[in-house]
Each structure stands twice: as C-alpha cells, then as structure tokens.
Amino acid sequence: MALKITHECINCDVCEPVCPNHAISQGVEIYEIDPDLCTECVGHFDKPQCQLICPVSCIPLDPEHEETPAQLLDKYRRLIRL
C-alpha cells in the first residue's frame, strides 16, 4: 500500500530527497506522495525511508491505496524500467 503524508507535516523538507522513486513532492500546503510512484521503498530498502526520517511521524500507510508486497515489487520493477 502506498504511503501518505498527513496534515501534521511541518514541511521540514527531509522526506523528499530520501525517496528513491521521486514519489514525494511539495504540494499546495504540505508535501504529498504520488501513490503511482510509491513502493514503500520495496526494491530499494527494507523500510520506507521517509517514515524513518520524518521527525513528526506523519507518514502512515494510505488505506485508499492498498497493495500487497508482491504488487509493490511489481510496481518497483515497472518503475526502474522507465
């Protein structure tokens, strides 16, 4: 399942550069995660890097974009071929 950034975000800018899929970008008010690009770092790291670095823990799983580990790995494989 993709991740999302909640309104607790303080716009600290630390999550965007650690995302290996470039899924995080500055939105109108806070940073946002593109669910089509987010693989929860599957294929790159054991744990989502944005969650590890976020100082306010505002990056939970997005229940609107549920995916299995196999689906996340397939998405990763498609993304690296681009």
Automatic annotation (TrEMBL):
Protein name: 4Fe-4S dicluster domain-containing protein
UniProt KW keywords: 4Fe-4S, Electron transport, Iron, Iron-sulfur, Metal-binding, Transport
Domain 4Fe-4S ferredoxin-type: 1-29, 31-64
Molecular function via GO: 4 iron, 4 sulfur cluster binding; metal ion binding
Pfam family, one: Fer4
PROSITE patterns to which the protein is assigned, alphabetical: 4FE4S_FER_1, 4FE4S_FER_2
Co-factor(s): [4Fe-4S] cluster
Superkingdom in the source lineage: Bacteria
NCBIfam families xref list: di_4Fe-4S_YfhL (NF033683)
